[in-house]
Amino acid sequence: MAQSAVQPSSATAAEPVKLPVGAIAPWAVFFGILMLVLLYFVGAEQGATAVTSGENVHEWVHDARHLLGFPCH
After folding, report:
1. Which of 13-22, 47-56, 57-66 has the lowest mean pLDDT?
2. Is residue 28 very low, low, confident or very high in pLDDT (cuts 50, 70, 90)?
3. Which InterPro entries does its entry note (predicted)?
4. How many whole angstroms separate alpha carbon 68 and alpha carbon 11?
5. Which of 4, 26, 65, 70 is most deeply buried (CB count within 10 A of its CB)?
6. 56-68, pLDDT tens digit by residue?
7. 3-state DSSP call for residue 68?
8. Where are the domains of the chain?
9. How many angstroms separate the CA atoms of 42 and 36, rounded?
10. What's the per-residue H, E or C state across 19-32?
């Protein structure tokens, strides 16, 4: 029982893959715009600036408004 069952390996440590900024930039812009649209619907979709008519969007995001600190009543 004094012998080890695991043999030491001669493999080198793995290096992280370097991604070019050009590959990340379109995705960052896409998700940035998506987050701004979601923030608009949660924070400002009611009243004079409403894109949709009625109260549907307001009711769907009502709890998120309170969670993020937006006043709505």
Report:
1. 47-56
2. very high
3. CbtB_put
4. 49
5. 65
6. 777 788 888 888 8
7. helix
8. 39-73
9. 10
10. CCHHHHHHHHHHHH
